[in-house]
Amino acid sequence: MSAADEFDIVVIGGGPGGYATALYGAAAGLSVAIIERDKVGGTCLHRGCVPAKEFLETASVNRAVTGADRFGINVAESTLDFSVSQARKGAVVDQLFKGLSGLLKGRKVTVFSGTGMLEADHRVRVVDGDDAGTVVVGTDVVLASGSVPRTLSGLEVDGRWVLTSDEFLDLKELPSSVAVVGGGAIGCEFASLLSDLGAKVTVLEFLPSILNECDEDIARLVTRSFKKRGIDVVTGVAVEGHTPGPDGATTVVRAGEQRFEVEMIVVSVGRRPRTEGLVAPGVAVQIDERGFVVADEYQRTAEPGVWAVGDIVAGTPQLAHVGFAEAIVAVKTILGESVAPVDDSKVPWAIYCHPEVAFCGLTEAQAKAKGIEVVTKKDPFGGNSRAIIVGDTEGVVKIVAERRADGSAGRILGVHLAGPWVTEQLGAGYLAVNWEALPEEVAYFIQPHPSLSENFGETMLALTGRGLHLG
Ligand code: FAD
Question: Is the entire prediction scored with pTM above 0.90?
Answer without folding.
Answer: yes
